[in-house]
Amino acid sequence: MLTLLQASDWTYFIGRFHPVLVHLPIGFLLIAALLEIGKRLGKITVSDTAITFILFWSAIGATMACVAGYLLSLGGGYEEALLSDHQWQGIGVAVFAWIAWLFKSGIISKGSFVYLPALAFATILTFTAGHDGGSLTHGDDYLTQYTPEPFRSLAGIAPRTEAIKEIKPIANINEAVVYKDIVQPILEMRCVQCHNANKQKGGLRMDGMAMLAKGGEDGPVFVSGKGSESAMIKRCLLPESDDDHMPPKGKPQLSESQIALLTWWIDQGAPADKKVSDLKVTDQIKPALALLSSGSSGGNGAVSSASPVLSLKVAAPAQKSVEAVKKVGLLVMPIAHDKNLVQISAVNAPGFGDGQSGFLTYLSEQIVWLKLGHTKITDGGVKELAKLKNLNKLHLEYTGVTDAGLNDLKNLQYLEYLNLVGTKVTDAGLKTIAGSKSLKNIYVWNSAVTENGILEAKKLRPDLNIVSGFNEARVAEFLKAGDSLKVVESPKSTK
């Protein structure tokens, strides 16, 4: 019993049954109250024994819900005053349910006038406790958030504010205050729902700089100057199936560019009031900043609805194959809820190399988007990538790929997007891959490709979009087309 009164696996296991158990007293008490009203109004005929039986189980259910609720509360992360109100209201439901049962059953015969008030109090408290329970779980405005006018004004509820769904375009990115204009909007979109003044999972609030810097029950969530070592970044990079991954599975996830921006901010010392121009802007972060200036918060990763790859019907990937790919550190996610096509990213596996590339062939039919930028892949690994017959987008930026590797890719019939930024690819390699009839966009800045080489490639493929130099508009377009971590709903939703 002492173990159950302390935070432990058993505590959390039993505590999480609270949402299930709490519905028992709600249903039983409402039925008992309705039967009692109907009987006293002469509308129905029901025995006192039946009502007594229902009251007994309502009291049992309320007691069990109280115990589970208490154990759940030991996990922390809740606003204390609201939690206290909810707990005492729940206890009140149980106490008054027992009192009503004792008098209705005749165990206590004197003072029978107490029965109806006890039943009424128990019933009313189910509503107030339920309201506070919803506020604890979903926020204090959960029940009233969508109250329409004129009822909103009549009830004295503040005007409704829309949740941030995307970062607004930043006209002058260099003058943007990094925390206020970039970091906080990302946190508001993806993190604050579970880490705010009323709901503090893990004892953490992320709705303000002071609270974010304070950290949670497990300590600081970021280490100033060390983004990759910070908990808030590490958790975002865990596989989505991991219990410690944030945001939790099923919630909207951060895109790679958003994670990159948060990491960059922490690496720069997590300043509260500095502008972009005050910080060191690396080549790696420039594309993400350019994307913000274009008005997209992370790239939607959507392929053109005209792309034939979206019309493919392939078998669902075998679970063993998916797990094998995940074991080498790769993220595996569907590109749409109604497709078996997947996207794979090595964002948290920089050590991924040629020796592991063979694992990708386990999903040779399902992989359409593949991000291996900043890994140790070379031409040897590209031979395995050429076996991914439905590959549509391929990121190989800052890898060891050369012209020889491109020769293996030229026959991929669905390849439309290829990122070769920062590689040793030359004019010869560009000319080779330009022979691919499906290729539409190729990015070669910081490579060995020359302007003459681009002109020669354009003679072969006048319609091929070749991006060879950095400018914000070009990079924004590049990321919007190539950032494929955000899941799209269906081909019909792309634009």
Query: Uncertain regions: pLDDT < 50 for 5+ in a row?
Result: 294-305, 483-495
Q: What is the first-to-last residue Cα distance?
A: 58 Å
Question: In which range does the helix fraction lie?
Answer: 40-55%
Q: Major β-sheet, in short? A: 7 strands, mixed
Domain unit count: 3
Strands ordered across the widest β-sheet: 1-2-3-4-5-6-7
**The CATH top-level class label of the largest domain:** Alpha Beta
Average of pLDDT: 82
What integer value in Å does the Rg equal?
Answer: 29 Å
Percent of sequence in beta strands: 5-15%
CATH topology of the largest domain: Leucine-rich repeat, LRR (right-handed beta-alpha superhelix)
Task: Give the tally of β-strands.
Answer: 7
* Level-2 CATH architecture of the largest domain: Alpha-Beta Horseshoe
Using the alpha-carbon principal axes, give the shape: elongated
* Secondary-structure-derived class: mainly alpha
Which SSEs are present, and which pair or pack?
Layout: H1 9-15, H2 18-21, H3 23-40, H4 48-73, H5 80-105, H6 115-138, H7 151-154, H8 178-190, H9 209-214, H10 231-237, H11 256-267, H12 286-293, H13 319-327, E1 331-334, E2 342-345, E3 367-371, H14 379-385, E4 393-395, H15 403-409, E5 417-419, H16 427-433, E6 441-443, H17 451-460, E7 465-467, H18 472-482
Parallel strand pairs: 2-3, 3-4, 4-5, 5-6, 6-7
Antiparallel strand pairs: 1-2
Helix pairs in contact: 1-4, 3-4, 3-6, 4-5, 5-6, 8-11, 12-18, 14-15, 15-16, 16-17
